[in-house]
Amino acid sequence: YPSENIRNFSIIAHVDHGKSTLADRLLELTGTIRKGHGQPQYLDKLQVERERGITVKAQTATMFHRHNLHGTDTEFLINLVDTPGHVDFSYEVSRSLAACQGVLLVVDAAQGVQAQTVANFYLAFEANLSVIPVINKIDQPTADPDRVIEQLKSMFDLDPKEALLTSAKTGQGLEQVLPAVIERIPPPPGKSSSPLRMLLLDSYYDEYKGVICHVAVVDGALRKGEKISSAATGQSYDVLDVGIMHPELIQTGVLLTGQVGYVVSGMRSTKEARVGDTLYQYRSVVDPLPGFKPVKHMVFSGVYPADGSDFEALNIAIEKLTCNDASVSVAKESSTALGLGFRCGFLGLLHMDVFHQRLEQASHVISTVPTVPYIFEYSDGSKVHIQNPAMLPSNPKQRVTACWEPTVIATIIIPSEYVGAIITLCSERRGEQLEYSFIDSQRAFMKYRLPLREIVVDFYNELKSITSGYASFDYEEADYQASDLVKLDILLNGQPVDAMATIVHRLKAQRVGRELVEKLKKFIDRQMFEIIIQAAIGSKIIARETLSAMRKNVLAKCYGGDITRKKKLLEKQKEGKKRMKRVGSVDIPQEAFHELLKVS
Ligand code: GTP
């Protein structure tokens, strides 16, 4: 296939607007997959993916389609380069888009433009891609395509004549999609006579083949048997296998300029496969492709085995997971309260949730309150980067002279009646309003700068609940800003529990301390001695609760001598104990740690 017969495109959309369904229909239409076999991956979707309606792992595929272009009937090779559907992966999205010359911007005909539509549009726009607007779900009774077309015109200056109207459900309008891709998206511009340069898009670990990388050949060609090098790591590899995803791997032995496919090269771990890296011919001299960025971790959390003996099991479970997700950082850490565990770094919140959920399927774990990376400066001029609040001394020898925290720019789109609620929420979360406008008569568009810390803790759930699920939200990383931060310690019977320490803004410390202490009182069961629960800043106690002593006897509830019932209760009590963590002499149930995550 000469480059002029190749098209590379991506589908971008707000969650649930129909990206995966549309992709499946296009693959069916071209005979790439059989009808009704469209969603094999649906079954192993994680709960969190289903709950939030997003796909985490992208599915890239090559299809073939005949089309009469300028009077000649030609077969085109069309690559659908899939992108992960969440803001945490915006870097991965930007790299996938770098392999494309155009996008389908899918918008739900009833919901209209949402926060991720805006974010994704600008990613495509900045990458100079042709944008084909696709108004999907026109079969819905509440569909109002004209309104959506109007929004696209006023917000992105997209020509109303260019919009395609489709229903990925009924199939209406789908026949126009591939012709539009072929006619409106230019072929890949690379040079076949230049030395090989290819962009690494994604990777995963396969038990039989080892690490499989998805790549886009920008210039030159890639052949089996050749040797390639990585610009990011300097490592070299033999090309063992090359082919296309159709959507299963099909060996072709070669990928030509403009093609998207896979390569197996004996990499030992996906950690060697950096998204956005340039792979080139061994020993040739080429400029790396622009835009590569090393992974940046925005959220950290500790994970510990729920009962101390399981450390090895946890270790194995984590190794297995990171094998397929090289973007999680893992470092051993130890906590006085929880023992041996790991500090993991994530690209963002959803990334963290997905990881925790996968981990919990494999092993009982306790995860600590997530933290963002802070910077503290002391009076001797030294600066420390804090990824774990426990690392910050409660009574430092040096005075803290300044602290900084990461911020984000959030885009929120909501029906206008919720504007007041959003303003209240964002100001509680220390947000600064940057923009407030209307995208049409019923919908408002707001931009806020918010400390990352404030959205890490339960922001998304609260946003959804105060707007009855109607808000859409997206954010991008912004600068660090100076902030008045303090470490908040939790003490049980006078002993600080390092794993419960958090860093908060000074003005919120009192309220957060109060709430934490109350939550703990509710979730810790009474024990045989009195428990004093306190929150403190340095040596100053700011909140206190007392849990009085009680002898807990589950059998007291049993009348008579029914032995099976007695056994059941004892079993249940044992089961409950498994999920406990003994800190000092106090047993803390796993839920208490979970509940702490919700205090902001
Ligand atoms: P992720 O893949 O999870 O990121 O979401 P998505 O944007 O790809 O949406 P998806 O294709 O999973 O579709 C979301 C829901 O909308 C599913 O329940 C689909 O069945 C439904 N859906 C998709 N297209 C249409 C359509 O044209 N009409 C109607 N009525 N429903 C549709």
UniProtKB/TrEMBL annotation:
Organism domain of life: Eukaryota
Domain Tr-type G: 4-189
Main location (coarse class): mitochondrion
One BP term from GO: translation
GO MF terms, alphabetically ordered: GTP binding; GTPase activity; mitochondrial ribosome binding
Enzyme Commission no: 3.6.5.n1
Topology in membrane: Peripheral membrane protein
Binding of GTP, residues: 13-20, 82-86, 136-139
Cellular component GO terms, alphabetical: mitochondrial inner membrane; mitochondrial matrix
Cross-referenced PANTHER family: TRANSLATION FACTOR GUF1, MITOCHONDRIAL (PTHR43512:SF7), TRANSLATION FACTOR GUF1-RELATED (PTHR43512)
Function: Promotes mitochondrial protein synthesis. May act as a fidelity factor of the translation reaction, by catalyzing a one-codon backward translocation of tRNAs on improperly translocated ribosomes. Binds to mitochondrial ribosomes in a GTP-dependent manner.
Protein family: Belongs to the GTP-binding elongation factor family. LepA subfamily.
Official protein name in the record: Translation factor GUF1 homolog, mitochondrial
